[in-house]
Design goal:
The complex is a heterotrimer of chains A (437), B (326) and C (279).
Chain A lengths: L1 H22 L11 E7 L5 H19 L2 E7 L1 H14 L5 E5 L3 H7 L7 H6 L8 H5 L10 E7 L2 E4 L1 H6 L9 H11 L12 E3 L6 H14 L16 H11 L16 H9 L3 E6 L3 H6 L6 E3 L12 E2 L1 E7 L6 H11 L2 H11 L12 H6 L3 H10 L1 E2 L7 H22 L4 H18 L1
Parallel strand pairs in A: 1-2, 1-3, 6-7, 9-11
Antiparallel strand pairs in A: 3-10, 4-10, 5-7, 5-8
Helix pairs in contact in A: 9-10, 9-17, 10-18, 17-18
Chain B lengths: L25 H34 L20 H7 L4 H34 L7 H13 L2 H11 L6 H9 L15 H26 L4 H8 L4 H12 L1 H16 L3 H7 L10 H11 L3 H26 L8
Chain C lengths: L4 H29 L3 H5 L12 H9 L2 H32 L5 H10 L5 H18 L8 H25 L4 H8 L4 H12 L1 H16 L3 H6 L7 H5 L10 H33 L3
Classes of the chains: A alpha/beta (437), B mainly alpha (326), C mainly alpha (279).
């Protein structure tokens, strides 16, 4: 008798608990009804700013098509994880942005809808896109699973006032000149014995930025990360020279404390605050505007003497459709909208990025909004290469970026890093890449 | 074990029955017992046991970001991941051994410091001192606060350029000429230790304080009447009486510290600097930064085995053989 | 202890040093939380240039802090309740019954303490995915998943503490009740639980504190809607200028529930541990 009561209590409480818990699932993640779920990357200095921009543009989309969009701006730190979570669980958004360097790796997971001829037609045709941008969207001989959305490149920004004060008139053309000018611009301006102005600022603790430069300078030295068959070869002489040059900036022309800066925006902030004279970065203009900073000019990125004229990788954002979506057509509509000529002009000028469709460059409104366009367009179409298009790229990016960050830390703490140190670090990465198969 | 009520745990002892009725039937009691532990068992199975077994299975496969979509069909690679982890010459193995050694040192230092601070505070705050109640609560704050809050404060204080520590050392006191790095480089281990001690010692304090409560006061009076010095009282009276608590405390805290993940994660982010890389963050790096899940799982499994053996050893060493189970 | 002069002097010194050690980061947190943004963008200053409560106002806008608060509150409270209930039942069984498998149960419970959390993370995630696919209950990105996870993590220590506590309470109390015909469960609820209140409170506090600040599993098992405070706080650090003052203000806000609850039950906590910890 008493036992039965006990049984009832236990069963009942467990059941109630289970029901309650499954009931409060805290929100609906599945795209039901006419609403699309869209994951966007973080393009502006703050997430809030991104949300404002998207709200405006997506309202336009809803007006035109009647399709509602529920968007989420995801910070970079988590984003890759989040995508993999969606891939492994089958539960994800309908449409999503990705960092374009992840294209091939994500293509291989098979979780994203291929843009075959029909799909490309549906979004307005594949020949509208800037060639280099489209190249970065997937493996060369396969149907791409993403299309470009925003493009970006590195360029050099410098302060005319500081240059004038140091007797320099032209921005540096070669990397060696960049280092020399950097030395001249690293000064103790207020005579208190401590250096307070540096040649440049770098986000020394950013794994992503570190990997970018391992790529760009490596390309200048003719060193590819992978062989044609996709075998890693990151410990070549060219790579060692490239990485060695890059990391030794810190503590010679960049402040040692840069080794603790984790985001590009942090380095940009130092540039704005007068702590450095030059910076090589992607698109700081929005941040400049936010702080009413006008003492700047843009120029092409300095290239290693005797090296190939590759100034940047094709950075940017691609957009794709999750293969598990049950709203394929609506998703394609959204992609079409976001890559349309008008939207490209609007979005890119608000995010200070570069349009991915050639027609947009003919629009005068673009240059009006962003005077850096002419310089950066040239870099994009003539002096940039896509990140390696292999599935192991994602991992190589992480491992190489981490090695660069560690070496920068070393430079900051002990003054400089030797070629032997760099060689050892890269050999380590090489063996880890080989081991991962 | 000295306690107020010395009631032995079970019906083995005869006690004067107040009634003539036999105790409720053992069989019926058994079924009820199983029912009572059922929810806990189910929860444990679902969250601890089954995932762990699955993790062990993953350790034998080559599971990466590429094939995670169809993880049930990930290729079986036998002992490859384990060998990679154990090979002292390979890049992964050597990293692992270094990290393991480093984590051991970390645990010894932090545990020792936490215990020392804990026992000192417990002893002093068991005596009649002004502000006793306040200090007891105050001392517990670092542990009661969410872990990341305190740790973030330490990261803020140790920032190389703007942080408080360097400001004091270089600007105010002039002890050093240059601002050293604390969050990268050699000093990062020190920062990790300091932040860990600050956050964890109150737990030791709490346990030891509770243990001190159960020591009857007259024991001390008797001891000092005999002329025993303070140190003597401490060594021969207090320590033995709190021994059971000590044993449990050291084991629980030791295990927890060995598996420490959140403090390094908040201090350093996803990539701990080499001098401070503990073993849990290293495993995390393999699994969630390099996306080599198979390897990450294999290393976790190895860690578990080591901890298990160490715990068995410890228990055997310190616990007296008992004929009744705990 | 008898208080000699040496003892008093030693006590004063040690307690002061410890108090300073504990206080310094707390001081930094509190003063930084009331500083204007300019103060925290340069070198550390001991005292704010002006004391402002703006950070406390701004934090709710920069990040959806209220939502995260709500999520954390829901998850932690449910996990604590669940853990306490399950632990009470299990501890009662272990401390009062002799059944087959009792020893293994205790040992397994104890051994889960040594599992590295990281070992579970991916498998747990994958299992939740499978459950969702087969039975349709959503565990990833829902409160349920996180609640069950936290509940289970604190369960072993809870059971352990309560078992010790229950064992210290003499059988006679329940037996007296059962003579009057209450039955085992009734005895548990009406006799044992009220007497064991300090121990139960101690367990509840332990569970709450552990779940409130958990980072690792929250980072993987939450979605945008169910994001808890520890993960949400990271957002203050991801803008171009790390908003330290807002971060510190948010930290204080986040710590308050735990601290208030803690102070309130602190007395019971020590008493509860005193009787139960020894086992």
């Amino acid at each position: 008798m008493k036992k039965k009561i006990a049984v009832r209590i236990v069963v009942a409480s467990t059941a109630v608990a289970a029901l309650t818990l499954s009931g409060c699932s805290g929100g609906d993640d599945s795209g039901e009804g006419a609403s699309l779920t869209y994951w966007a990357t973080n393009m502006s200095p703050t997430i809030e700013q991104d949300e404002e921009v998207l709200k405006e543009h997506l309202a336009g989309f809803t007006e035109e098509t009647g399709i509602e969009v529920e968007y989420e701006v995801v910070p970079w730190g988590d984003y890759y994880n989040k995508i993999l979570t969606a891939v492994s669980s089958g539960e994800g958004p309908d449409v999503l942005n990705i960092g374009n360097t992840w294209s091939v790796t994500l293509q291989e997971t098979g979780s994203f809808m291929p843009f075959d001829d029909d799909a490309l037609e549906a979004i307005g045709g594949g020949d509208r896109f800037v060639e280099t941008a489209l190249e970065s969207a997937g493996k060369p001989d396969e149907t791409p699973t993403f299309v470009p959305l925003y493009s970006n490149v590195y360029s050099l920004f410098y302060k005319p006032s500081m240059f004038a004060a140091a007797g320099l008139t032209e921005p540096p053309k070669t990397y060696q000149e960049f280092l020399e000018y950097g030395k001249q611009l690293t000064l103790d301006t207020d005579g208190d014995g401590a250096i307070d102005q540096w040649g440049t600022s770098v986000p020394g603790a950013s794994v992503q930025v570190g990997s970018h430069w391992a790529f760009i300078l490596g390309q200048q030295e003719g060193a590819d990360w992978f062989t044609e068959d996709g075998e890693p070869q990151v410990d070549s002489e060219g790579m060692v020279t490239a990485v060695h040059t890059y990391v030794n900036q810190v503590n010679s022309i960049a402040a040692p404390s840069d080794a603790e800066i984790t985001e590009g925006a942090g380095a940009i902030q130092d540039f704005i605050d007068g702590k450095s004279a030059m910076i090589i970065t992607q698109s700081p203009m929005a941040q400049f505007a936010q702080f009413d900073f006008t003492d700047w000019e843009v120029a092409e990125v300095p290239v290693m003497e005797g090296g190939e004229n590759i100034q940047s990788m094709v950075a940017g954002i691609n957009i794709g459709v999750f293969s598990e979506t049950d709203q394929r057509e609506d998703s394609l509509e959204l992609v079409k909208y976001l890559t349309s000529d008008d939207e490209q002009v609007g979005l890119n000028s608000q995010f200070s990025t570069l349009p991915v469709v050639t027609a947009a460059y003919d629009d005068p409104a673009l240059e009006e909004a962003d005077p850096t366009i002419p310089v950066r367009e040239v870099i994009l179409s003539e002096h940039s290469k896509p990140f390696p298009l292999f599935s192991a790229t994602g991992q190589a990016e992480t491992l190489l970026g981490t090695a660069v960050v560690t070496l920068i830390g070393q430079a900051a703490v002990s003054g400089s890093v030797s070629e032997a140190d760099v060689s050892a670090a890269l050999a380590d990465v090489q063996s880890q890449l080989e081991a991962a198969g | 074990m000295t306690r107020i009520t010395d009631a032995p745990p079970d019906a083995a002892l005869p006690h004067a029955p107040l009634h003539e009725k036999p105790r409720p039937s053992l069989l019926a009691g058994n079924r009820l017992a199983y029912l009572l532990i059922a929810p806990a068992v189910i929860a444990e199975l679902l969250i601890h046991i089954v995932p762990m077994l699955l993790g062990l299975w993953v350790a034998f496969t080559h599971l990466t970001q590429i094939n995670i979509r169809n993880w049930t069909r990930a290729p079986f690679v036998g002992l490859d991941n384990f060998i990679a982890g154990l090979d002292p010459d390979g890049p992964i193995g050597s990293q692992l051994y270094t990290s393991f050694f480093r984590t051991t040192v970390y645990v010894i230092i932090v545990l020792g410091a936490c215990w020392a601070l804990g026992i000192a505070s417990a002893v002093f705050l068991s005596s009649k001192v002004k502000g006793r109640a306040f200090l007891r609560t105050f001392f517990l704050i670092p542990w009661a606060m969410p872990a990341f809050v305190g740790t973030i404060a330490w990261a803020f204080m140790f920032n190389q350029r703007d942080g408080m520590v360097n400001k004091i050392l270089v600007d105010d006191l002039g002890v050093l000429d240059e601002r050293p790095f604390w969050l990268i480089g050699e000093n990062s281990f020190f920062v990790l230790i300091v932040a860990s001690i600050w956050q964890m010692w109150p737990f030791a304090f709490l346990m030891l304080l509770a243990a001190m409560q159960s020591i009857p006061g007259d024991v001390f009076e008797a001891a000092s009447l005999d002329g025993a010095s303070l140190w003597r009282q401490f060594r021969s009276l207090i320590l033995p009486m709190i021994r059971p608590t000590n044993i449990v405390l050291l084991l629980v805290m030791g295990l927890f510290l060995f598996n420490q993940f959140s403090i390094p994660y908040v201090l350093f982010g996803r990539n701990s600097p080499e001098p401070a890389r503990l073993i849990s963050p290293l495993i995390y790096e393999h699994s969630f930064v390099n996306w080599n899940f198979g390897l990450g799982s294999a290393v976790s499994a190895l860690l578990l085995v080591v901890l298990f053996i160490a715990s068995l050893f410890y228990i055997h060493l310190v616990m007296p053989r008992k004929n009744d189970d705990d | 202890m008898i208080e000699t002069r040496g003892f008093i002097w030693l006590r004063r010194v040690v307690l002061t040093v410890i108090a300073v050690f504990v206080a310094v980061p707390l001081y930094v947190i509190v003063t930084t939380a009331v500083k204007p943004l300019e103060d925290v963008r340069g070198v550390f200053t001991w005292w704010p240039s002006t004391i402002t409560v703006e950070p406390f106002v701004d934090i709710w806008g920069t990040v959806p802090l209220l939502e995260y608060f709500r999520n954390s509150l829901i998850v932690t409270t449910l996990a604590t309740a669940g853990s306490v209930v399950l632990a009470v039942l299990a501890a009662y069984a272990v401390s009062r019954f002799r059944f087959r498998g009792r020893r293994s149960f205790s040992l397994v419970v104890l051994s889960t303490q040594m599992f590295p959390g990281i070992l579970f993370l991916l498998p747990l995630f994958l299992i939740f995915v499978q459950i969702q696919r087969t039975i349709g209950i959503q565990l990833n990105g829902s409160y349920a998943g996180l609640v069950i996870t936290y509940m289970t993590f604190t369960l072993p220590v809870s059971i352990w503490m309560l078992t010790g506590y229950f064992q210290a309470i003499p059988h006679e109390l329940e037996e007296a009740a059962m003579i009057d015909g209450t039955g085992r469960m009734g005895a548990l609820l009406r006799v044992l639980v009220p007497v064991a209140k300090p121990g139960i409170i101690a367990v509840a506090v332990y569970c709450f504190i552990n779940s409130w600040g958990e980072v690792l599993f929250a980072s993987v098992l939450t979605s945008n809607q169910t994001r808890t405070l520890p993960i949400g706080l990271q957002a203050y650090a991801s803008s171009n200028v790390v908003l330290w003052n807002e971060l510190m203000a948010a930290s204080i806000v986040v710590s308050l529930p735990v601290l208030i609850g803690f102070v309130a039950v602190q007395r019971h906590l020590v008493a509860g541990l005193a009787a139960g910890a020894v086992k």
